[in-house]
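Quick start: what a row looks like.
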Amino acid sequence: MNKKILPILIAAGMLVLSGCGPSGLGYDDLDNLAISNKTEIQAAWLVGETERTLTFTTEPEINVTNEINNGHLVVTSSDVAVASVVGRVIMALSAGTATISVSYAEHVWDTVEVTISARPTNKDKFGTVHEGTLEDPLDNEDAITVGKWAKTEGNGSAFTTTEKFYISGVVDSFYHAPGSRTDGLVSWFLKPAEGKTEKFEVYKCAKNEDGDPLTWDDIWADGTAVAYGAITFYGNQMETPSALFVSCEGNKPEPQQTITATVTEALAVGAALTDGDSTYDLYAVTGYVVKKSGSDYYMAELATETVDANMLMIFAYTDTAGIMLRGAKVTATMSLKNYHGVVENSGTPTVVLITEGVAWEINYTDATVAEALVVANALADNATTSAYYKVTGVIVAITSAWSSQYGNMNFTIGDTAEDANLLLIYRLVCTEAESADFVVGASIVIGGQLKKYNTDLEMIAPVVFSVGEGGGEIQPEFAADLTLDFSNDYGVSATTVTTNTTFTVGSINYGYVNGKAGQKYVNNAPAGLEYLMLYNSGTPAGAFWNETAMASAINRIRITSGSGASSTAVYSLTVGTTSMAGSQPQASATEAFVIGTGASHIFDCSDVAGATFFNISAFTKNCQVAKLEIEFVAA
């Protein structure tokens, strides 16, 4: 052999032994490679939960993605049936333990052991007798057990399970009988077990995902019905927020009858019902319209009746035909319901005019928005004025856009466009074309009764006398650098407040969320995030939302409240230059402001040099944040 080429061959062999690849470093060239997020990887992990991604520290720095792609850096699992690995992403497949190893240039540099736990069954999680599957559906008592779990999770407020269950039981009675609602949804109570009294309600159940109506051929009293849906605790009732019909079996009763009745006979039938129940049959009730309150009408045997106990209530009826006038004789065909001792319609009645009445004599009292708010605020909770008020103001915010389903919309008005003391105009009935006139900044004269609904001050059954042209966006120009819109499915993704929860917009991490006990980020609608709920009910406890990792100093912040926020909700914004502990800042400037339902306010933070932290606190009930916009100091 030529001795001159021997050193070259030896050098080449040394390169192979050192593990050097075509584009990677050799083993001898790497000083350190370690898994940097072991704590996150080893946190409690259930089968099927979101995959987790390994991160590394290396010395010298290497392009991890490239090195994985070219096969130099390899991540493996000791048990791929428990935890499989693709690249640096680990997936939890089954219960057990697996060791994840990280190799580079065929040398194992670091390992981490992961434990995957079996997902708890519904029996384990909720303490039910049945699992809630189609083969083993929940019964009435099981469904109530889950509802009570939801009550605890929601601290006594509305809270809905993420799980959906098959729920089976005998139909004890109807809350919304088949055919009683125009949307065809049906609500029924399950019959409790022997010795039990509490009833679970399958609420607003549709026939299928297309929302087709349920009929008397589909479901009936004393039949064994199965529905599928989530479970919630709402208004002291364990129920489904909405459900899908699965089946009903058992002896079908005689077809639904339409029974002719006087008002007196209808009142007797309704009084005999259990609270919350509706009749199986329809009743065609003939009487005189003697009273009107908002969108509620009252029928009586005599046109001269003045005693409420002798009146049948037609609840929330939209008189599109204009026939429900004083003294009109009508026949209303409907299912009857006993609602806390008041006999009324279940669903939407069919009303036929027999004899015309006369126009309602309504005397309006002129008022400013401020004057109307004083009157409404003096009412007891959930009380309504008997008098009618004609209020002049300016539209400040559209809180609920026009609904094609209900043909109405909500908005707030103030005495000026910048007013923070607002009156909610609740469910103004109008066409889609008419709704285009009700825009932010438009002057308006509107009349109706005033109501105090919990802490919200409202005008109900409103009638518009005049509306001017809109003034467009009220708020001054605001160039947001970061917008958190909680009506979309990004922002905070946690279902309840936890400490040190990161949130992202796009792929950028904006820090940590710190919250007070049990305040929810999501509402119970399947649509997901609709607002950031800072405080819901009870005595204010300084519920707050902290952001502790802004990238640069804050100039201004605009907070827009949610459509369900109280018109008297008080929000306090605190900004500072040091990390905040609890709800009290260490160095800050604070501003508190009332933001009405659907309205917004700009907080000026420019007087705190280098402000990089903020804290939003809530001091009244129903403080919802629909949108948070942050303007940073110009570079």
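That is the whole record. The two ends are 70 Å apart (CA to CA). Residues 295 and 318 are 7 Å apart (CA to CA).
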